[in-house]
Write the structure tokens for this entry.
Amino acid sequence: MEALFEVVVFLAIATFGAALARRLGLLAPILLVVLGLALSFLPFFPQVRLNPELVLVGILPPLLYVAALETSVPAFRLNLRSILLLAVGLVLFTAFVVGTVVHLLLPQVPYSICLALGAVVAPPDAVAATAVARRVGLPRRIVTILEGESLINDATALVLLRVAVAAAIAATGGVGVDYVAREVLVATGGGILVGLLGVVVFGYLHKHTTDAVLDNALSLIVPFAVVFAAEEIHASGVVAVVVTGLGIGHKLPLLMSAASRLQVAAFWRLIRFLLEGLVFLLVGLQLREVVRDLDEPFGFLAGITAAVLAAVFLTRFVWLFPATYLARLVPRVRRRDPAPPLQVPIILGWAGMRGVVTLAAALALPLTLAGGRPYPRQLFIWLAFAVIVVTLVAQGATLPAVARRLKLPADDPVQDALSAAAVQQEASRAARERLDALADGAPPAVVERLRGLVQSRTNLAWERLGGAERETPSQAYGRLRQEMIDAEREVYRAARDSGRIPEEVLVRAYRDLDLEESLLRQEADE
């Protein structure tokens, strides 16, 4: 009962923090981390010890899955070279640089465990990248690259961590090339195979599930089932979840009914909101636990922390500029994808926030090395924690200002609206042709009403190309129809209260009116 009470308290605090962040115009992840740091100093507040297995198996899979579901596969494929350069190349580069820096400052500590620390702090966090990048309003391609990087880089880092830890605790003091190759092959290849199998199995189940509630429940099961299957064969659960999410998300319009898609989308919005808030709050709450057993002199602690932070920060920029521009020296690459302006690698470099995966990986470091040899494990956990807090708070909080200062070329809303209107014109033509083919025998009033509906959707698409100086016909329709819906609701409520209709009639009427109002609000937001 006490543990359940603490979970409810944490969720309530995370919800309050997110609401406060919206009211103050701040980024919720940063505010929640700071709030967690402050609460960790209160002696009466529950002390939280984060379980790395809970994070890596219980929290990360659903967050990765919903992020992959919403990722555009064509956009992901188009930016695959950039994504892999960051998610694989940059993670390995950062891990080796950080490992080397730590080994130089702690020469008595084996390089293998220093490399493990490098793998821990190397990957930017999937949750932080998605939450911050979308909130800041970065250009679409930059968001795609950051999200794609964050979907894959955890797998790279965790595989490297597994190899480095195996080398650190091996009785012979190292591992062979064959072991490394086998680990990489099993982790990535096995993860891809399990992910593809997940697409086939759960895609089939979604396609043959007609009940929206069952579809929703099945969607929640998918990321955990895929992770457990991957872990069973020692493959990468991260890769498996991402592959399954990308595959099912790409085919979602063919796999689920409209009711299922609406319910699943609303369900995952709630799950992501709660888990993201809980994750960032829990990161901040670890401060008391992390600093409790530190016994290094303050000067040395400050120096090694600053060195690791500098290595993490600088390696991203050192890697990004050559990775962005050297490839464009190849004429074929340059023709297909011209070199972006300097603002692009700068903002990508600044968006390297770390998160809960880094902390979970640090807490999973071994207690001792080969032969029971000790090493400064608590110091390594502190370094990982410092990287999370500084990158998330400092870089995350300043990212909006940096984006504004760089004056990034924004996505052209006119071009987006023009493309949408053109496609809507084609869709409306297809709808009219289908209606004409099936209209025989239908009441003329019904046919005319449907033709008017198609025309109004076409008009709405073209209206978005106009300016915002005057109220468009669709906006006037939405405003007036909203007032009519409110009046209808009041009549139904009064009838229920007076006993003229049962509760079931009210529920059905409200459901229909709520669906129509949701559509009106969605069209207004667009």
